[in-house]
Design brief:
The complex is a heterodimer of chains A (about 80) and B (about 450). Chain A has about 80 residues and is of the alpha+beta class. Chain A has helices at about 15-25, 45-55, and strands spanning about 5-10, 30-35, 40-45, 60-65, 65-70. In chain B, about 25% of the residues lie in helices and about 15% in strands. The chains are: A alpha+beta (about 80), B alpha/beta (about 450).
C-alpha cells in the first residue's frame, strides 16, 4: 500500500495543541510534528481521515503538503 | 572532536548560556568542542515515557510546551536539569545532571527503554580558527557584564585592515556602509539550503544551526550561503573583496529547510519557522516560494511570529506574476527585487509586495572553494531586508514584530513605481546618529 499523503493542520488557540494532536491520532492521523510555536501539526493520513480532521475542535484548516523551492532558473544564474 | 576528557563539568545546567558554556570549556582546558551538555533522543512516540523515566530519577524537567506559544529560549528554563523539545523528540540535558545520574554517552545502553541515544552537544562555529575568536567574544561579554573593563582583551571585531574597500551596489543602495549599526544582539534566522559552516568569512561568528530535511546543515547548493552572506556577512572581507554583508554583528541561525537540490515542502519550512520562533529570532528570512495561493499555515505562523516579536520576510518570487506562498500571507512581509536603476526587476513578482531591495547581480558568499559569486532573484533581495531589519532592531528594543515591519516601510526610500510592484520602496539601513556632547 502506498504511503498516505502528508497534510498540514493549522490550529487556533481555543485549546492546547497537544489535545488536538491526540484527537487527530485517535482518528488515525499519523502525527509527525507538533509545532506549538506556530500552531501547526504535520502528519500523514488518508484523504478521508484528513477530511474528518477538519471537524476536530481547534482545527482551522487542513491543507495538503506542497513542494517549495528557491524559485525558477533566474534565481540562480 | 570526540575527546574523552573526564574533567567534571562545572555548573552546566541545561539552561546555561553559550557564553557560560564557553567559559567552562576554557576552564576545563577542553578542546573537544563539546559544550558539556548532552542531547537525549527519545524513541519514536516515547517522549512521555522517557520524560517520566527522567523525573523518576529526580531530574527537574522543563518542557517547551509549558511556555506560552512555545516561545522560550534555553536560557529561560531556570534551574531545570533537562529541557524537552517535545516536538522534535529531543531533550537537552545539563552536564552536571548527566554525570550525577550516569546518563553520559558511555553509560547508556542501546536498548534502554524510551531513550534512543545520549550524545554530547557540540559548539558550532564557522571554522576551526574562530573557536578562539568565539572564546574572546564570550570572555569579553562576560567581563563587561561583570562590570570589568574590556580594554585588556582583544576585540574580535577589530579589523586589522579595516580600510574601506568599497561595498556592493546593493549595500550602497540601502545606505548600509554609512550605517553605524551591526545588528549586535539580534538573532537572524535564514531558512534555506543551509550554510557553509567552514566559510572563512564567518570565522568568529557564533552560529546556531538545525536541519529539517534529513541532510547535514552544510550547504552543498550555495543558495543558503549566499543569502546568509547578504543578511549577516562581515564588515570587512579579506583583501580587495567589497563589503557584501549587512548585519555583521548578528547571531546567525541557519535552518536548513530546503535540500541540497534546493527543494523542500511546506512541512519542512514550517518546522524551520517553528524552530526560529521558539528561539525568538527577531528576524526570519525566507528566500523560497511556490505558486500556491495563500496557505493558512503560513499565515498562522507569521501571526505567531509577530505576537512574540519576530518578523518574517519572504521572497515574492521570480516569475513576474502575483506573489506566491509564503510571501502572499498577510502576516509575512513580501520582498520584491529591483535592478541597479532602482526599477523592478523583470522577473520580480508583484501585487502583494511590502518592500523592495536589490536583487539583480548580487555579489555574496558561496560555499568554499567558490567562496564568492553573483546571483539574481527576489531570493537575493530578501536578505537585504532581513539585514537592514536587524540593524533597525538593534536601535530600539521596541522595534520588534509589527512595529519593525511598519518602521522598515516608513523609512524605505520612495521609488517612482507603484506599491503593487515595489511596495513602500527601497529598504534602508538606519542612518548615522549625530552625537552631541554636553559642554565641558
Amino acid at each position: 500500500m502506498p504511503p498516505h499523503p502528508r497534510w498540514i493542520v493549522t490550529t487556533d488557540d481555543s485549546r492546547p495543541i497537544g489535545q488536538v494532536a491526540t484527537e487527530l491520532r485517535r482518528l488515525g492521523f499519523r502525527v509527525e510534528n507538533v509545532m506549538s510555536a506556530i500552531g501547526s501539526i504535520t502528519g500523514q493520513a488518508s484523504p478521508a481521515v484528513a477530511a474528518s480532521a477538519r471537524h476536530v475542535a481547534g482545527v482551522t484548516d487542513v491543507e495538503p503538503d506542497a513542494p517549495i523551492d528557491i524559485g525558477p532558473p533566474e534565481a540562480d544564474q | 572532536m570526540g575527546s574523552k576528557k573526564k574533567e567534571k563539568a562545572r555548573n552546566l545546567s541545561a539552561s546555561c548560556g553559550i557564553d557560560e558554556l564557553l567559559i567552562a570549556a576554557i576552564e576545563r582546558g577542553d578542546d573537544s568542542m563539546q559544550t558539556g551538555r548532552y542531547l537525549v533522543t527519545y524513541r519514536e512516540n516515547a517522549v512521555a515515557e522517557g520524560t517520566k523515566a527522567m523525573k523518576s530519577q529526580g531530574l527537574k524537567v522543563a518542557d517547551t510546551r509549558d511556555f506560552a506559544g512555545q516561545a522560550m529560549t534555553v536560557e529561560d528554563v531556570g534551574d531545570a536539569d533537562i529541557v524537552n523539545f517535545a516536538e522534535c523528540g529531543v531533550a537537552l540535558l545539563g552536564g552536571d545532571a548527566a554525570e550525577a545520574h550516569g546518563l553520559t554517552t558511555a553509560s547508556t545502553s542501546e536498548g534502554d527503554g524510551a531513550i534512543e541515544a545520549v550524545e554530547p552537544e557540540y559548539f558550532v562555529f564557522a571554522d576551526g580558527g574562530d573557536y578562539m575568536r568565539g572564546f574572546l567574544a564570550a570572555t569579553q561579554t562576560i567581563n563587561r557584564d561583570l562590570g570589568g573593563s574590556d580594554t585588556a582583551l582583544l576585540d574580535p571585531d577589530q579589523d586589522v585592515d579595516a580600510e574601506v574597500l568599497g561595498a556592493t551596489w546593493g549595500l550602497r543602495a540601502c545606505a548600509v556602509p554609512t550605517s553605524p549599526r551591526s545588528g549586535q544582539g539580534i538573532k537572524v534566522a535564514v531558512l534555506d539550503t543551509g550554510g557553509d559552516l567552514r566559510h572563512p568569512d564567518f570565522a568568529g561568528r557564533i552560529i546556531v544551526s538545525q536541519s529539517f530535511v534529513g541532510q547535514p546543515v552544510q550547504d552543498a547548493h550555495g543558495h543558503g550561503t549566499h543569502c546568509i552572506g547578504t543578511a549577516c556577512g562581515p564588515k570587512s572581507p579579506p583583501g580587495t573583496t567589497p563589503r557584501y554583508g549587512i548585519g555583521y554583528g548578528t547571531s546567525i541561525y541557519i535552518g536548513k529547510v530546503l535540500t541540497n537540490q534546493g527543494s523542500g515542502s511546506t512541512a519542512s519550512v514550517l518546522a524551520g519557522l517553528n524552530w526560529a520562533i521558539a528561539n525568538r529570532c527577531q528576524v526570519i528570512s525566507m528566500s523560497l516560494g511556490s505558486r500556491s495561493p495563500v496557505q493558512s499555515a503560513y499565515t498562522a505562523a507569521g501571526a505567531a511570529a509577530l505576537r512574540v516579536g519576530c518578523l518574517v520576510v519572504a521572497a515574492a518570487g521570480n516569475e513576474n506574476r502575483p506573489t506566491g506562498a509564503p510571501a502572499n500571507s498577510p502576516t509575512i512581509m513580501a520582498v520584491a527585487s529591483v535592478d541597479q536603476n532602482l526599477s523592478k526587476s523583470s522577473f520580480s513578482n508583484h501585487t502583494k509586495i511590502e518592500i523592495a531591495a536589490p536583487g539583480r547581480d548580487v555579489f555574496s558568499s558561496l560555499p568554499m572553494p567558490r567562496r564568492y559569486g553573483t546571483l539574481s532573484g527576489t531570493s537575493m533581495a530578501t536578505p537585504h531586508v532581513a539585514g537592514c531589519a536587524a540593524l533597525w532592531a538593534q536601535t530600539s528594543a521596541s522595534l520588534r514584530g509589527m512595529a519593525l515591519w511598519r518602521h522598515l516601510q516608513a523609512r524605505a526610500r520612495r521609488l517612482p513605481q507603484p506599491a503593487n510592484l515595489v511596495g513602500a520602496g527601497l529598504v534602508q539601513a538606519p542612518p548615522p546618529v549625530a552625537i552631541t556632547r554636553p559642554p565641558r
